[in-house]
Design a protein that fits this description.
The chain is mainly α. 37% of the residues lie in helices and 6% in strands. It is elongated and about 85 Å long. The termini are far apart. The model has no long low-confidence stretch (mean pLDDT 82).
Length: 124
């Protein structure tokens, strides 16, 4: 719930605006701006004169949900595009030839032999 009361200091016309959380939090450090709609935050900070209307809050919530839906759709399309690009990249790579395939390292200590690897030529 949001409240507006008399000014905090004498000689000022700026009213005191506060919030009371539904779960009973009263301490200042418990303030969580993620739980308060932007319109109410603006009112609490005296960035707007009038408190937001229910219609304004509903419209903002509908816009927020639409944005989330569109972002999820874009994420899904990007994942599909990444898979398509990966398939194209895999199809464009030449098949590994026996002389270009790596050999495994073997041995231990003084007899250790590192593996060999010859890079394939890069297409330009």
């Amino acid at each position: 719930m949001y409240f507006e009361g008399p000014p905090m200091r004498a000689g000022t016309d700026r009213t005191r605006r506060t919030i009371e959380y539904f779960d009973g939090r009263t301490e200042f450090y418990d303030y969580d701006p993620e739980l308060i709609p932007v319109q109410w935050q603006s009112w609490l900070r005296h960035c707007r004169d009038d408190p937001p209307t229910l219609a304004e809050l509903r419209e903002a919530e509908a816009q927020r949900l639409l944005t989330i839906q569109r972002a999820a759709e874009l994420d899904r399309k990007w994942e599909e595009r990444k898979l398509e690009l990966e398939r194209q990249r895999a199809a464009a790579l030449p098949a590994a030839t026996p002389e270009s395939s790596p050999t495994a390292p073997h041995g231990q200590g003084d007899t250790f032999e590192p593996g060999a690897w010859t890079p394939a030529s890069k297409r330009r």
